[in-house]
Amino acid sequence: MSTRILAPTLVRPAGSRSRRSSRRQQHGAIIVTAALTLLLLLGFMGIALDFGRLFIVRTELQTALDSCALAAARELNKQPDAISRAVSAGAAAGNLNGVNLQSTNWSGQGQITAADVSFRDASYLSTTSATAAVYSQCTHTQSNISIWLLKALGAFSGDSTSFPATGNVGAYAVATRASAQSACPIPVALQAKTPGATKPDYGYTAGDWLTLLAKSNGGSTFGWANLDGSNSASETADELNGHCGSKLGDTLGTPGVQASIVEIWNYRFGIYKNSSGPSVGRPDYTGYIYNTSTWSAGRSAYNGSSGGTPNFLAQRLAFTPCGNNPAQCGQQGGGFSSVATSAQLKTYGADRRIVTVPIVNTSRKVVDFACMLMLEPMKIPVDDVQLEYLGNASATGSPCTTSGLAGGSAGPLVPVLVR
Protein backbone atom coordinates (compact mmCIF):
# COMPACT_ATOMS: atom_id res chain seq x y z
CA MET A 1 0.00 0.00 0.00
CA SER A 2 1.55 3.23 -1.09
CA THR A 3 1.75 6.18 1.07
CA ARG A 4 0.65 9.55 -0.52
CA ILE A 5 2.13 12.65 0.84
CA LEU A 6 -0.23 15.49 0.50
CA ALA A 7 1.14 19.01 0.12
CA PRO A 8 -0.19 21.38 2.67
CA THR A 9 -2.97 23.49 1.40
CA LEU A 10 -2.74 27.23 2.13
CA VAL A 11 -5.99 28.48 3.33
CA ARG A 12 -6.57 32.30 3.10
CA PRO A 13 -7.96 33.63 6.32
CA ALA A 14 -11.37 35.05 5.94
CA GLY A 15 -10.44 38.51 7.33
CA SER A 16 -7.27 39.23 5.29
CA ARG A 17 -9.04 40.93 2.44
CA SER A 18 -10.83 43.31 4.76
CA ARG A 19 -7.58 44.24 6.56
CA ARG A 20 -5.88 45.27 3.31
CA SER A 21 -8.85 47.37 2.41
CA SER A 22 -8.66 49.00 5.82
CA ARG A 23 -4.98 49.84 5.32
CA ARG A 24 -5.74 51.49 1.99
CA GLN A 25 -8.42 53.55 3.69
CA GLN A 26 -5.96 54.59 6.40
CA HIS A 27 -3.44 55.67 3.77
CA GLY A 28 -6.09 57.84 2.13
CA ALA A 29 -7.01 59.38 5.45
CA ILE A 30 -3.36 60.25 6.15
CA ILE A 31 -3.07 62.01 2.80
CA VAL A 32 -6.18 64.07 3.48
CA THR A 33 -4.97 64.93 6.99
CA ALA A 34 -1.54 65.95 5.68
CA ALA A 35 -3.15 68.12 3.00
CA LEU A 36 -5.33 69.85 5.57
CA THR A 37 -2.34 70.32 7.88
CA LEU A 38 -0.27 71.83 5.07
CA LEU A 39 -3.16 74.13 4.23
CA LEU A 40 -3.32 75.22 7.86
CA LEU A 41 0.45 75.78 7.97
CA LEU A 42 0.22 77.73 4.72
CA GLY A 43 -2.36 79.94 6.36
CA PHE A 44 -0.14 80.61 9.38
CA MET A 45 2.83 81.26 7.09
CA GLY A 46 0.72 83.60 5.02
CA ILE A 47 -0.35 85.51 8.11
CA ALA A 48 3.27 85.82 9.27
CA LEU A 49 4.71 86.86 5.91
CA ASP A 50 1.89 89.02 4.62
CA PHE A 51 1.16 90.86 7.84
CA GLY A 52 4.91 91.20 8.34
CA ARG A 53 5.11 92.91 4.97
CA LEU A 54 2.21 95.20 5.82
CA PHE A 55 3.98 96.11 9.07
CA ILE A 56 7.19 96.94 7.16
CA VAL A 57 5.29 99.09 4.67
CA ARG A 58 3.53 100.92 7.50
CA THR A 59 6.87 101.58 9.21
CA GLU A 60 8.26 103.00 5.96
CA LEU A 61 5.12 105.10 5.49
CA GLN A 62 5.33 106.40 9.06
CA THR A 63 8.94 107.48 8.48
CA ALA A 64 7.89 109.32 5.32
CA LEU A 65 5.04 111.10 7.11
CA ASP A 66 7.30 112.02 10.04
CA SER A 67 9.64 113.67 7.52
CA CYS A 68 6.68 115.41 5.90
CA ALA A 69 5.33 116.82 9.18
CA LEU A 70 8.74 117.99 10.41
CA ALA A 71 9.59 119.72 7.13
CA ALA A 72 6.19 121.40 7.02
CA ALA A 73 6.40 122.54 10.65
CA ARG A 74 9.76 124.18 9.98
CA GLU A 75 8.06 126.64 7.62
CA LEU A 76 5.31 127.75 10.02
CA ASN A 77 6.75 131.15 10.90
CA LYS A 78 3.51 133.21 10.61
CA GLN A 79 4.60 134.79 7.31
CA PRO A 80 1.95 135.19 4.57
CA ASP A 81 3.46 132.43 2.43
CA ALA A 82 4.01 129.99 5.31
CA ILE A 83 1.23 127.59 4.30
CA SER A 84 2.34 127.28 0.67
CA ARG A 85 5.96 126.79 1.72
CA ALA A 86 4.98 124.23 4.34
CA VAL A 87 2.90 122.18 1.90
CA SER A 88 5.68 122.16 -0.67
CA ALA A 89 8.40 121.34 1.86
CA GLY A 90 6.35 118.62 3.54
CA ALA A 91 5.45 116.78 0.35
CA ALA A 92 8.98 117.06 -1.01
CA ALA A 93 10.62 115.76 2.18
CA GLY A 94 8.14 112.93 2.64
CA ASN A 95 8.42 111.70 -0.93
CA LEU A 96 12.19 111.40 -0.65
CA ASN A 97 11.58 108.29 1.46
CA GLY A 98 11.08 104.85 -0.07
CA VAL A 99 7.81 103.04 0.70
CA ASN A 100 6.65 99.49 -0.09
CA LEU A 101 9.97 97.73 0.43
CA GLN A 102 11.89 100.96 -0.32
CA SER A 103 10.28 101.60 -3.70
CA THR A 104 11.28 105.09 -4.83
CA ASN A 105 7.95 105.67 -6.56
CA TRP A 106 5.96 103.83 -3.89
CA SER A 107 5.17 101.05 -6.37
CA GLY A 108 3.16 103.49 -8.46
CA GLN A 109 0.35 103.65 -5.91
CA GLY A 110 0.58 107.39 -5.25
CA GLN A 111 2.81 109.49 -3.02
CA ILE A 112 2.17 112.42 -0.67
CA THR A 113 0.27 115.29 -2.29
CA ALA A 114 -0.81 118.74 -1.13
CA ALA A 115 -4.14 117.24 -0.04
CA ASP A 116 -2.31 115.06 2.49
CA VAL A 117 -0.83 118.08 4.33
CA SER A 118 -3.08 120.04 6.69
CA PHE A 119 -2.66 122.49 9.55
CA ARG A 120 -4.07 123.24 13.00
CA ASP A 121 -4.02 126.30 15.22
CA ALA A 122 -2.97 126.60 18.87
CA SER A 123 -6.33 125.13 19.96
CA TYR A 124 -5.75 122.20 17.62
CA LEU A 125 -8.56 123.26 15.30
CA SER A 126 -8.19 122.90 11.56
CA THR A 127 -6.97 126.09 9.84
CA THR A 128 -5.66 127.36 6.53
CA SER A 129 -4.44 130.67 7.95
CA ALA A 130 -0.68 131.23 7.69
CA THR A 131 -0.71 133.42 10.80
CA ALA A 132 -2.71 130.92 12.88
CA ALA A 133 -1.10 127.63 11.86
CA VAL A 134 0.90 126.07 14.71
CA TYR A 135 0.78 122.35 13.91
CA SER A 136 1.39 120.55 10.63
CA GLN A 137 -0.27 117.20 9.98
CA CYS A 138 0.55 114.72 7.22
CA THR A 139 -1.85 111.84 6.53
CA HIS A 140 -1.63 109.19 3.81
CA THR A 141 -3.01 105.74 2.98
CA GLN A 142 -0.93 103.39 0.87
CA SER A 143 -3.28 101.24 -1.20
CA ASN A 144 -3.07 98.01 -3.20
CA ILE A 145 -0.19 96.40 -1.36
CA SER A 146 0.19 92.90 -2.78
CA ILE A 147 -0.46 90.08 -0.34
CA TRP A 148 1.42 86.97 -1.38
CA LEU A 149 0.36 83.75 0.37
CA LEU A 150 -3.04 84.78 1.64
CA LYS A 151 -3.96 85.51 -1.96
CA ALA A 152 -3.08 81.91 -2.83
CA LEU A 153 -5.12 80.71 0.13
CA GLY A 154 -8.07 82.74 -1.11
CA ALA A 155 -7.75 81.21 -4.56
CA PHE A 156 -7.58 77.70 -3.06
CA SER A 157 -10.57 78.23 -0.79
CA GLY A 158 -12.56 80.36 -3.20
CA ASP A 159 -13.05 82.98 -0.44
CA SER A 160 -11.43 86.19 -1.75
CA THR A 161 -13.29 88.28 0.83
CA SER A 162 -11.65 86.67 3.84
CA PHE A 163 -8.35 86.29 2.00
CA PRO A 164 -7.93 89.44 -0.18
CA ALA A 165 -5.23 89.81 -2.81
CA THR A 166 -4.21 93.32 -1.66
CA GLY A 167 -4.16 95.35 1.54
CA ASN A 168 -4.04 98.99 2.64
CA VAL A 169 -2.05 100.69 5.40
CA GLY A 170 -2.37 104.23 6.70
CA ALA A 171 -0.35 106.52 8.95
CA TYR A 172 -0.20 110.12 10.10
CA ALA A 173 2.20 112.46 11.89
CA VAL A 174 1.84 115.83 13.61
CA ALA A 175 4.68 118.29 14.29
CA THR A 176 5.16 121.79 15.64
CA ARG A 177 8.06 124.08 16.57
CA ALA A 178 9.68 124.35 20.00
CA SER A 179 12.80 125.98 21.44
CA ALA A 180 15.97 123.98 20.93
CA GLN A 181 18.25 122.82 23.75
CA SER A 182 21.19 124.09 21.71
CA ALA A 183 21.68 126.24 18.63
CA CYS A 184 24.18 126.79 15.84
CA PRO A 185 24.77 130.54 15.95
CA ILE A 186 27.48 132.52 14.20
CA PRO A 187 30.47 133.45 16.42
CA VAL A 188 29.36 136.90 17.52
CA ALA A 189 27.69 138.06 20.73
CA LEU A 190 25.04 140.66 21.47
CA GLN A 191 24.54 142.35 24.84
CA ALA A 192 21.47 144.22 26.05
CA LYS A 193 21.15 147.66 24.46
CA THR A 194 20.90 149.31 27.86
CA PRO A 195 21.84 147.91 31.29
CA GLY A 196 18.95 146.03 32.83
CA ALA A 197 17.02 145.59 29.57
CA THR A 198 15.28 142.22 29.57
CA LYS A 199 13.81 139.66 27.20
CA PRO A 200 12.44 139.25 24.71
CA ASP A 201 14.22 142.09 22.89
CA TYR A 202 16.68 143.45 25.49
CA GLY A 203 16.05 147.05 24.46
CA TYR A 204 16.24 146.52 20.69
CA THR A 205 13.45 146.91 18.14
CA ALA A 206 12.94 144.66 15.14
CA GLY A 207 14.46 146.42 12.13
CA ASP A 208 17.34 148.08 14.03
CA TRP A 209 20.71 148.05 12.24
CA LEU A 210 23.58 147.11 14.56
CA THR A 211 27.28 147.53 13.82
CA LEU A 212 29.54 144.53 14.37
CA LEU A 213 32.92 145.98 15.26
CA ALA A 214 36.06 144.60 13.65
CA LYS A 215 37.81 144.73 17.03
CA SER A 216 36.18 143.05 20.00
CA ASN A 217 37.46 145.64 22.47
CA GLY A 218 35.74 148.52 20.74
CA GLY A 219 33.29 149.09 23.61
CA SER A 220 30.25 147.99 21.57
CA THR A 221 27.39 145.77 22.71
CA PHE A 222 27.97 143.71 19.57
CA GLY A 223 31.24 141.94 18.74
CA TRP A 224 33.00 138.73 17.78
CA ALA A 225 32.79 135.83 20.24
CA ASN A 226 34.03 132.26 20.07
CA LEU A 227 31.32 129.76 20.93
CA ASP A 228 33.78 127.32 22.53
CA GLY A 229 35.06 129.95 24.98
CA SER A 230 38.51 130.21 23.38
CA ASN A 231 40.27 133.30 22.06
CA SER A 232 41.55 131.65 18.86
CA ALA A 233 40.93 133.57 15.64
CA SER A 234 41.17 130.35 13.61
CA GLU A 235 38.40 128.87 15.76
CA THR A 236 36.24 131.86 14.85
CA ALA A 237 36.65 131.02 11.16
CA ASP A 238 35.78 127.37 11.77
CA GLU A 239 32.66 128.29 13.72
CA LEU A 240 31.54 130.73 11.04
CA ASN A 241 31.90 127.89 8.55
CA GLY A 242 29.52 125.66 10.50
CA HIS A 243 31.59 124.12 13.31
CA CYS A 244 29.21 125.39 15.95
CA GLY A 245 27.07 124.62 18.94
CA SER A 246 25.94 126.77 21.84
CA LYS A 247 23.45 126.53 24.69
CA LEU A 248 22.22 128.64 27.57
CA GLY A 249 24.88 129.15 30.22
CA ASP A 250 27.89 128.77 27.92
CA THR A 251 30.69 131.31 28.37
CA LEU A 252 31.93 132.80 25.10
CA GLY A 253 35.49 133.79 24.25
CA THR A 254 36.82 137.08 22.89
CA PRO A 255 38.93 136.36 19.78
CA GLY A 256 40.89 138.60 17.52
CA VAL A 257 39.69 138.94 13.95
CA GLN A 258 41.74 137.72 10.98
CA ALA A 259 41.34 137.92 7.23
CA SER A 260 40.28 134.27 6.87
CA ILE A 261 36.94 135.21 8.42
CA VAL A 262 36.28 137.58 5.53
CA GLU A 263 36.33 134.85 2.88
CA ILE A 264 33.93 132.61 4.81
CA TRP A 265 31.60 135.51 5.65
CA ASN A 266 31.47 136.53 1.99
CA TYR A 267 30.47 133.02 0.87
CA ARG A 268 27.01 133.87 2.12
CA PHE A 269 26.82 136.78 -0.33
CA GLY A 270 28.09 134.68 -3.25
CA ILE A 271 31.56 136.30 -3.40
CA TYR A 272 34.51 133.94 -3.94
CA LYS A 273 38.22 133.58 -4.41
CA ASN A 274 39.72 131.28 -7.05
CA SER A 275 39.74 128.25 -4.76
CA SER A 276 36.01 128.29 -4.00
CA GLY A 277 32.60 128.67 -5.60
CA PRO A 278 28.88 128.38 -4.84
CA SER A 279 28.89 124.57 -4.95
CA VAL A 280 31.36 124.56 -2.03
CA GLY A 281 30.69 127.79 -0.15
CA ARG A 282 26.91 127.89 -0.25
CA PRO A 283 25.44 131.40 -0.70
CA ASP A 284 22.06 132.74 0.32
CA TYR A 285 19.28 133.01 -2.25
CA THR A 286 20.37 136.61 -2.78
CA GLY A 287 23.65 138.46 -2.42
CA TYR A 288 22.12 141.93 -2.60
CA ILE A 289 23.92 144.36 -0.28
CA TYR A 290 22.06 146.68 2.09
CA ASN A 291 23.63 149.84 3.46
CA THR A 292 22.57 153.47 3.63
CA SER A 293 23.61 153.92 -0.01
CA THR A 294 21.29 151.19 -1.31
CA TRP A 295 18.63 151.45 1.43
CA SER A 296 18.26 155.03 2.57
CA ALA A 297 15.80 154.15 5.35
CA GLY A 298 18.69 152.66 7.33
CA ARG A 299 16.45 150.01 8.95
CA SER A 300 13.95 147.22 8.21
CA ALA A 301 15.62 145.95 5.05
CA TYR A 302 14.25 142.47 5.77
CA ASN A 303 10.63 143.19 4.90
CA GLY A 304 10.28 146.99 4.94
CA SER A 305 10.31 149.60 2.18
CA SER A 306 12.73 152.31 1.11
CA GLY A 307 12.12 154.13 -2.15
CA GLY A 308 12.01 151.76 -5.10
CA THR A 309 14.55 149.24 -3.79
CA PRO A 310 13.12 145.75 -3.18
CA ASN A 311 13.54 144.47 0.37
CA PHE A 312 15.45 141.33 1.29
CA LEU A 313 12.49 138.97 0.91
CA ALA A 314 11.74 140.33 -2.56
CA GLN A 315 15.39 140.09 -3.62
CA ARG A 316 15.40 136.47 -2.49
CA LEU A 317 12.46 135.65 -4.71
CA ALA A 318 14.32 137.21 -7.64
CA PHE A 319 17.66 135.51 -6.79
CA THR A 320 19.40 138.88 -7.10
CA PRO A 321 23.23 138.75 -7.00
CA CYS A 322 25.32 141.44 -5.33
CA GLY A 323 26.69 142.43 -8.74
CA ASN A 324 28.38 141.10 -11.85
CA ASN A 325 31.90 141.09 -10.40
CA PRO A 326 33.62 141.51 -7.01
CA ALA A 327 34.21 145.24 -7.60
CA GLN A 328 30.47 145.82 -7.95
CA CYS A 329 30.08 143.98 -4.64
CA GLY A 330 32.43 146.38 -2.86
CA GLN A 331 35.52 144.15 -3.07
CA GLN A 332 38.43 146.21 -4.37
CA GLY A 333 41.06 143.77 -3.15
CA GLY A 334 41.55 140.68 -1.06
CA GLY A 335 41.86 138.23 -3.95
CA PHE A 336 38.15 137.85 -4.68
CA SER A 337 37.64 136.84 -8.31
CA SER A 338 34.05 135.73 -8.93
CA VAL A 339 30.44 136.33 -7.95
CA ALA A 340 27.56 133.83 -7.96
CA THR A 341 25.11 134.47 -10.79
CA SER A 342 21.35 134.53 -10.42
CA ALA A 343 21.18 130.99 -11.85
CA GLN A 344 23.77 129.78 -9.35
CA LEU A 345 21.92 131.42 -6.46
CA LYS A 346 18.80 129.56 -7.56
CA THR A 347 20.68 126.26 -7.78
CA TYR A 348 22.91 126.47 -4.71
CA GLY A 349 21.12 129.06 -2.57
CA ALA A 350 20.15 128.29 1.02
CA ASP A 351 19.05 130.11 4.16
CA ARG A 352 22.48 131.66 4.80
CA ARG A 353 22.04 135.33 5.70
CA ILE A 354 19.36 134.94 8.38
CA VAL A 355 21.44 133.89 11.37
CA THR A 356 21.13 133.10 15.06
CA VAL A 357 23.22 135.23 17.44
CA PRO A 358 23.88 134.53 21.15
CA ILE A 359 22.73 137.17 23.63
CA VAL A 360 25.14 137.37 26.57
CA ASN A 361 25.23 139.08 29.96
CA THR A 362 28.12 141.17 31.28
CA SER A 363 29.97 137.96 32.20
CA ARG A 364 29.67 136.79 28.57
CA LYS A 365 27.38 133.92 29.51
CA VAL A 366 24.68 133.04 26.98
CA VAL A 367 21.24 134.02 28.30
CA ASP A 368 19.20 133.98 25.08
CA PHE A 369 19.39 134.03 21.28
CA ALA A 370 18.55 136.73 18.75
CA CYS A 371 17.64 136.43 15.08
CA MET A 372 19.54 138.73 12.72
CA LEU A 373 20.04 139.48 9.02
CA MET A 374 23.54 139.84 7.54
CA LEU A 375 23.29 143.08 5.53
CA GLU A 376 26.66 143.38 3.82
CA PRO A 377 29.86 141.48 3.03
CA MET A 378 33.18 142.11 4.75
CA LYS A 379 36.20 143.78 3.18
CA ILE A 380 39.97 143.43 3.42
CA PRO A 381 41.44 145.06 5.44
CA VAL A 382 38.81 143.95 7.95
CA ASP A 383 36.25 146.63 8.67
CA ASP A 384 32.99 146.98 10.57
CA VAL A 385 29.83 145.43 9.10
CA GLN A 386 26.16 145.81 9.90
CA LEU A 387 23.41 143.32 10.71
CA GLU A 388 19.70 143.88 11.20
CA TYR A 389 17.96 142.80 14.40
CA LEU A 390 14.89 140.70 13.51
CA GLY A 391 13.74 139.82 17.03
CA ASN A 392 14.14 137.09 19.60
CA ALA A 393 14.98 133.76 17.95
CA SER A 394 12.31 131.98 20.00
CA ALA A 395 9.50 134.31 18.89
CA THR A 396 6.70 132.48 17.09
CA GLY A 397 7.13 134.49 13.91
CA SER A 398 10.92 134.40 13.88
CA PRO A 399 12.50 133.58 10.50
CA CYS A 400 15.35 131.87 12.36
CA THR A 401 14.86 128.13 12.23
CA THR A 402 17.56 125.62 12.87
CA SER A 403 18.05 121.93 13.42
CA GLY A 404 18.57 120.58 16.89
CA LEU A 405 17.07 118.75 19.82
CA ALA A 406 13.89 120.34 21.15
CA GLY A 407 13.33 120.87 24.85
CA GLY A 408 15.07 124.17 25.61
CA SER A 409 13.64 127.22 27.34
CA ALA A 410 15.05 129.74 24.85
CA GLY A 411 16.58 129.83 21.44
CA PRO A 412 15.55 129.23 17.85
CA LEU A 413 12.49 127.13 17.20
CA VAL A 414 13.09 123.65 15.80
CA PRO A 415 10.53 121.22 14.38
CA VAL A 416 9.49 118.46 16.77
CA LEU A 417 7.03 115.57 16.45
CA VAL A 418 4.09 115.63 18.83
CA ARG A 419 2.09 112.68 17.40
From TrEMBL:
Residues 28-74 form the Putative Flp pilus-assembly TadG-like N-terminal domain. It comes from the Bacteria. Pfam families: Tad. The lineage of its organism: Bacteria, Pseudomonadati, Pseudomonadota, Betaproteobacteria, Burkholderiales. This is Putative Flp pilus-assembly TadG-like N-terminal domain-containing protein. It comes from Comamonas testosteroni (Pseudomonas testosteroni). Keywords: Membrane, Transmembrane, Transmembrane helix. InterPro entries: Tad_N (IPR028087). The chain crosses the membrane at residues 27-49.
